Amino acid sequence: MKYRFLPGLALLFAMLPVKAADTIHLSVDASKPGAKINRNLFGQFAENLGNGLYGGIWVGPNSSIPNTRGIRNDVVTALRALKVPNVRWPGGCFADQYHWRNGVGPRDKRPATVNTAWGDVIDTNAFGTDEFMDFIQQIGSTPYVSINIGSGTTEEAAEWLEYMTAAAPTALAKERAASGHAAPYKIGFVGLGNESWDCGGAMTPDYYVSLMKVYSRFVQNMNPAQSGKDKMLKIAVGPGTPDTQWTEAVMQAWKKHTWSWDIDGVSLHWYTVPNGWPPSTNSAKFGVDDYVKALKSTLFMDAFLRKQEAVMDKYDPEKKVMLTVDEWGAWHAPLPGTNPAFLFQQNSMRDAVLASLNLNIFARHADRVRMANIAQMINVLQAMILTDKEKMVLTPTYYVFKMYVPFQDATFLPVTFDAGTYTHGGISLPRVDAIAAKAVDGKMLLEITNLDPESPVHIEADLTGVTAKSVRAETLTGAAVDSVNTFASPDVVVSKPVAVTLQNGRISLIAAPRSVTVVSMKP
Ligand code: AHR
Q1: CA 360, CA 371: separation in Å to the nearest integer?
Q2: Which domains does the chain have, with CATH numbers?
Q3: 357 Cα to the center of ligand 1, angstroms
Q4: Does pTM top 0.85 for this prediction?
Q5: What is the tens place of the pLDDT at every residue in 252-261?
Q6: Closest residue by CA, ligand 1 atom 3
Q7: Which residues, at least 6 apart from 468, have a Cβ–Cβ distance to it below 8 Å?
Q8: Of all helices (H) and strands (E), which one includes residue 379?
């Protein structure tokens, strides 16, 4: 075991209740920049599901919960700190049953409908298109609208885009103006269906491709401000299992696309469901066995991406079409006592580590993977935020996204290291994971995840191609793998500054067990 004692770390060592840390050496090469880590990789997903929208975002203008035009202020403030690049809405499975006209115009005149995708609950349609756009504007994000190609029509979808984006005084633009929004909205992304192989209509790949072409042709953005580099991107449905049949069909069609239709991305969905479907792992009160299984399972994301990328490279070696992971995250059993159709789960230190591993995988695939959406934003699955009436708590996953903000649009830098191994119950994991990047403000960034739930790791990092003048680091860890934040104890797992030294160009720090650390260096 190699260990170099640094005076600045003495106190930290003395405080650690576990054995002295092994050393893992990292080398960051700033002279070999890679792809841009697209800010859209840090996107979110807000489906009309459970309390994701209603209660989580929308409380209505007459609520006693502080709000701006019906949207909760506490949630907006928390999300602004994440610089959320895009939000996918209204689904998910819900998207292919959503009829947008139910959600525009005076709210007291909107029809009540049934959310047949999620628990058959009554949907007041109070949170519709204009409310979503208001939310997007309040948090400073970009809309990613999933259109209904399952139970809807091409005409309905085309008219929705016209309602949102027409600048000229068409009837639909006037209708939008009458709702208080004279200026057209900017729509960043349109999803052409959702999981069309399953809840979106159980289509075959060929059937989907034919339908997708029609929607791509007729669903047009009419906002003149969105021509050229600001154009709205169209995203086709991709697979939800590692086989490549679906991607083959979509990419083969794309290769032969004509002037009349096009796509800019193909999505894939991959959840971490450690014991397989139906999700059965506890989201709170679990042990190292479950932690290790979940991390092993989540690391499969890398192989899944490689498989799909190989197909895309065959048809699109220039990587014009992006791969978007527009649903990912941990899917555990619903928290006992909650409506199982609402997919409400706690969020622990395990989920934070799992999030950082996925974000690092996306960064390594940044030349092709240029967008991702964690499922989901609030009160659903691996959420950033949990709410209960007026109460709100930020989850460990929230803090990971906050710590990764500087990575948005940063340039990937290669980092080499021998990760070591952590083994438990016959399952082996890399002991550490790491990525490096050059941020848009010129700072050098290094992220280190210590997967080992029991032991700290002493990290030594050398930089080639740049000299760091100052360094700071922030870390997120919990007392146990199942540490959670609750309404009563919201600060159990929060990110904090951590000791780091810079000597002769070498960074040195202790990465606590089960931790996520971001080091930022000023050149
Ligand atoms: O995120 C929950 C659901 O998971 C989405 O609605 C669907 O697309 C996926 O199966």
Answers
A1: 13
A2: 7-35+412-522 (2.60.40.1180), 39-408 (3.20.20.80)
A3: 21
A4: yes
A5: 999 999 999 9
A6: 92
A7: 444, 502, 505, 507, 521, 522, 523
A8: none
